[in-house]
């Protein structure tokens, strides 16, 4: 009788400890990651890239010693405010649909006198010795669209064509793993290791994902552009490398950006 | 030369809240490169903050502080228009000073 009581008492004590451990936090890993992200929000190092990019935008650079202050991102020469919320779009001067990075390359070639190869080299930074000017410029331009609703056009036939091609690429399966974007991003509740993956075929998922890129990646200590995001998705799918500023990358961006229309842009963000 | 810091300083009640982002590699000295050679330590060692010329914070930092660190602190006093100045020095002897006006 006595020992029975004692055992019961021990059982109760053990239960209390369990309850206390749960109450003290230790929610699901996903909750913990959400808390971690919230804690990082206050001091986003992306601001360092924004500042560097703004400086670079105004500096006279390249063989023609010109700044980018006359660069037309779609809203007129030199207009940066809100420009990213309407990209990609068709540009008559280039006779092609361009996303932000492609347009920046265009301005660097036509106005600053860089060769296209020079403007396109080193699009993604790697530490102090290999800082990417492109990512800094992207950080600055996108930061000027924060709080503005996405409004990507589909009026020109080439814009519609880009959307259709982008959609096709999104659902296209191939490579050694018979993989496609939709394999990971076409269902709810999927994750890669502990990271939740957005369902890009639904309005909510598409909006949340697109409006939080570019982002500072804490694990890399770098600001990453949307071109980088697509490039790395292709690598993870074991696809051939997605060429920087290629038509395929622009088409896929058009598909994803257009699907985020109506959502408030909220980047450069911060991610784990 | 190192990139500029990003400093925000705001009066909250009778204190001033300062938030600083610094651009630095903060290499720990523990990592190895592709050839297996140790990457030498290179990080911020001292941080000093002054308000109108008077020190309000001085810190010694080690290799455990993150890359591109964010520092937030409060001090008593401070008024709109006052200057806050932050200086860091790293293990290579590089130093950077930036200033912000309290808003």
Question: Strands, helices and their partners?
Answer:
The complex is a heterodimer of chains A (272) and B (103).
Chain A lengths: L1 H22 L5 H12 L5 H13 L30 E3 L4 E3 L1 H11 L5 H5 L12 H11 L13 H15 L9 H5 L5 E2 L2 E2 L6 H8 L4 E3 L4 E3 L1 H11 L10 H13 L9 E3 L1
Helix pairs in contact in A: 3-6, 7-11
Chain B lengths: L5 E7 L2 E7 L22 E8 L2 E7 L9 E7 L6 E8 L4 E7 L2
Radius of gyration of chain A from the CA trace? 23 Å
CATH class bucket of chain B: Mainly Beta
Q: First CA to last CA of chain A: what distance? A: 55 Å
Judging from the principal axes of the Cα atoms, what is the shape of chain A?
A: globular
Class from secondary-structure proportions of chain A: mainly alpha
Q: What is the overall pLDDT average of chain A?
A: 87
Which runs of chain A of at least 5 residues are low in confidence (pLDDT < 50)?
Answer: 7-25
CATH overall fold name of chain B: Immunoglobulin-like
Number of domains of chain B: 1
Strands across the major sheet of chain B, in which order?
4-3-6-7
Helix content of chain A: 40-55%
Q: Would you count the extended β strands of chain B for me?
A: 7
The largest β sheet of chain A comes out as: 3 strands, mixed
Q: How helix-rich are the residues of chain B, as a percent range?
A: under 10%
N- and C-termini, Cα separation of chain B: 28 Å
Outline the biggest β-sheet of chain B: 4 strands, antiparallel
Strand content of chain A: 5-15%
Class per helix and strand makeup of chain B: mainly beta
């Amino acid at each position: 009788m006595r020992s029975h009581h004692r055992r019961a008492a021990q059982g109760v004590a053990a239960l209390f400890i369990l309850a206390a451990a749960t109450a003290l936090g230790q929610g699901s890993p996903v909750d913990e990651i959400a808390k971690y992200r919230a804690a990082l929000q206050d001091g986003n190092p992306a601001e360092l890239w924004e500042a560097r990019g703004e400086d670079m935008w105004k500096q006279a650079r390249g063989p023609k010693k010109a700044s980018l202050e006359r660069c037309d991102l779609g809203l007129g020469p030199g207009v940066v405010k809100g420009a990213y919320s309407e990209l990609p779009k068709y540009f008559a001067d280039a006779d092609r649909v361009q996303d932000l990075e492609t347009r920046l390359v265009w301005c660097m070639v036509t106005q600053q006198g860089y060769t296209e190869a020079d403007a396109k080299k080193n699009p993604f930074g790697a530490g102090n010795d290999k800082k990417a000017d492109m990512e800094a410029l992207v950080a600055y331009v996108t930061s000027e669209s924060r709080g503005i609703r996405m409004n990507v056009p589909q009026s020109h036939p080439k814009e519609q064509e880009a959307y259709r091609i982008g959609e096709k690429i999104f659902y296209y399966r191939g490579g050694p793993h018979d993989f496609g974007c939709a394999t990971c991003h076409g269902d709810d509740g999927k994750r890669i290791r502990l990271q939740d993956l957005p369902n890009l075929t639904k309005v909510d998922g598409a909006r949340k994902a697109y409006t939080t890129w570019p982002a500072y990646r804490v694990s890399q200590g770098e600001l990453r552009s949307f071109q980088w995001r697509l490039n790395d998705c292709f690598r993870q799918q074991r696809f051939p490398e997605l060429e920087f500023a290629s038509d395929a990358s622009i088409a896929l961006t058009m598909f994803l950006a257009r699907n985020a229309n109506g959502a408030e842009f909220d980047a450069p963000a911060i991610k784990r | 030369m190192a990139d500029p810091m990003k400093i925000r300083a705001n009066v909250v009640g009778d204190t001033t809240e300062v938030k600083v982002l610094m651009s630095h590699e903060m290499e720990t000295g523990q990592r190895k490169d592709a050839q297996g050679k140790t990457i030498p330590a290179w990080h911020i060692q001292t941080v000093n903050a002054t308000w109108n010329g008077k020190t309000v914070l001085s810190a010694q930092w080690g290799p455990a502080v993150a890359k591109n660190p964010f520092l937030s602190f409060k001090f008593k006093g401070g008024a709109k228009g006052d200057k806050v100045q932050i200086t860091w020095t790293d293990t290579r002897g590089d130093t950077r000073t930036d200033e912000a006006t309290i808003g």
